[in-house]
Amino acid sequence: MRVARLRGVPANGRPVDGRKVPDGRKAPADRDGSAVALRSHRNGLVGRLLGEVIAARAADAGRPTVLDCGGGSGTFAVPLARAGAAVTVVDISVDALATLARRAAEAGVADLVTPVQGDAESLDDAGLGSFDLVLAHGILEAVDRPDVAFAGIAARAAAGGVVSVLVDNPAASVLARALAGELDAAARELDALDSPTPPIDLAHVRRLCAQAGLTVEQVHGVGVFSDLVPGAALDLPGARDALADLDARCATRTPFAEIAGRVHVLARRPG
Length: 271
Fold this sequence. Notes:
- There is one protein chain.
- By secondary structure, the protein is α/β, with parallel strands linked by helices.
- The protein folds into 2 domains: 4-167 and 200-223 and 261-268, Vaccinia Virus protein VP39 (Rossmann fold, 3-Layer(aba) Sandwich); 169-198, no CATH class.
- The protein has helices spanning 44-61, 77-82, 94-106, 146-154, 170-179, 183-192, 202-211, 239-250; strands at 4-5, 65-69, 86-91, 113-117, 131-137, 157-168, 215-222, 262-268.
- The protein has an 8-stranded mixed β-sheet, with helices on both faces.
- Helix 2 links the parallel strand 2 (65-69) and strand 3.
- Helix 5 (170-179) runs antiparallel to helix 6 (183-192).
- The longest helix has 18 residues, at 44-61.
- It is globular, with a radius of gyration of 19 Å.
């Protein structure tokens, strides 16, 4: 696997799995007041949950360390850094990592973000250490061998560390296709659920976590209504906040959570 730390966002002498910044300072409680970036519309419920994880870790061990596998241009990495975490992003795309470096610099957290060009499926070859929080968002659907990839990702979680998994919900995809009038496509996606290699779903993620020695602590449906509400309705005053609140209230409530567009799992390594 090709691994390279990109120029423009230096590691500042900090080990990838280091617990401190170079001069030994403790992490600030929050660089932007109260982790506003993690609670943005773009990150929504998942951002809030990740913010809670790193806040708890910071209280116990100083600056939290985060590994974002396939994190690309920093949708989560930059807000996590703004909230005080030291974030390493592994992604195969040089262009995405260049965008990450620019966004980190613009946000004033270049010293806390380390882009690493490499394959998130082969983390054992990257010489990385262990992390307090490991993100596997949108990875499992994109790899040929999700079981092997997840084992390597989970291995990067430190004792007591958390792995955050975000996958598409195949049931929601069938529903969305049908509601859009794409009935043939809905039927094909329904048939795929019964194929020898069905799409990744919550049951599969639970099995992967168990195989990796992780304990699932939280499961949320993400975007229960977001993909169903017409875009024009969101232009009304207060509509986006109302939608975010509605999604959050239904994220763990049956039967709504089961039709959410994505599934988010937080699993912890004992220790």
